[in-house]
Amino acid sequence: MTTIDHFNLRNFDLNLLIAFDAMMEELNVTRAAARLKIQQPAMSHSLKTLRMLFDDELFVRVGQTMKPTSRARSLASRVRAVLQKAEDALAFSEQFSPLTEQRTFRLGFSSELEVHLLPELMAHLRVVAPGVRLVARHAERQNLHALLNSGDIDLAIGCFGEQAQWQRSEILFEEQLACCFNPALMPFTSPIGQQDYLTQPHALMSFTGSLMGCVENAFNRAGASLNAVFSAPNFLALLSFAQHSPVLVTLPSRIARRYGKLFGLVLCPVPLQLEVFPNSIVWPVNADSDPALEWLREQIRDVNQRIEPADVVAH
Fold first, then answer.
1. Residue 39, C-beta contacts closer than 8 angstroms, at least 6 positions apart
2. How many C-beta neighbours within 10 Å does residue 215 have?
3. Least trusted range by pLDDT, from 4-8, 54-58, 82-86
4. What value does the mean pLDDT take over residues 223-237?
5. pLDDT digit string, tens, across residues 123-141
6. Pairing of β 155-158 and β 104-109
7. Domain boundaries, the chain
8. How far is C-alpha 137 from the chain's CA centre?
9. CA of 131: how far to CAs of 97, 136, 152, 296, 299, in Å?
10. InterPro entries from the entry (predicted)?
11. Topology of domain 177-269, per CATH?
12. Which residue in 26, 136, 193, 269 could disulfide with 31, CB within 3.0 to 4.6 Å?
């Protein structure tokens, strides 16, 4: 891309190019002024400034009309090209056609939504927008801002907490927690009581290296403390651990309900009044006017609504 000298251009009134083009069209100061809907003295002032800038008369009177000089004729096509490009840029309206679009979207997902939402979303997009491609990235609270700020992802979906001022967000759904365990290894059946829940060993999801992980604040606000013995950033590791060990696993209810049975685990509600966890779509403010990303957010909402609402665990 050619470098533009912005400093020099800012000292030049680009309206003078419009005045020059009008003069080339009309070859008359009065008619050129009328064409631009300005007074004749203003047009005369613009012509005087142009003559000084180009060090040329540009237009000279011959009889009853004005004639362009050789310098004006050589400038005419270049000035017209500049104005045409400016007009095209101002009139440009970005269009998005799903059936013909060839674009790669880069999306950040929290780990549970990578398996809960991403497969259904990709299957849907293959039908409605066959030329669209997705690149999925792992996104959590700790790296969300950096990924969006750098442009490494176009938007993110997950439970991220508060957003920065330069980000937009909308809640996609609110998540509850559920509990899974292997009934053959635990001294109780579902549903479990609060005392058993609080005293038995727990395995939890964590992306920070702490045992309590992302649910710590929720339990603290509920005045509860868990006997956490294991944490991992991947829910599959937790479910596999619970399959072979006498522990309770507390997970987002959609994940627990969909995958717990695959590991021979039973599902039960958490016997505490805990806050719900909002899962949101997050994107940078400068993407608000991108019709492709606006369309993609709509597809994400539609796909989420079609997925079985597994976030409610019956008490």
1. 33
2. 23
3. 4-8
4. 85
5. 999 999 999 999 999 888 8
6. parallel
7. 14-91, 104-174+277-307, 177-269
8. 13
9. 10, 16, 21, 13, 15
10. LysR-type_TF, LysR_HTH_N, LysR_subst-bd, WH-like_DNA-bd_sf, WH_DNA-bd_sf
11. D-Maltodextrin-Binding Protein; domain 2 (3.40.190)
12. 26
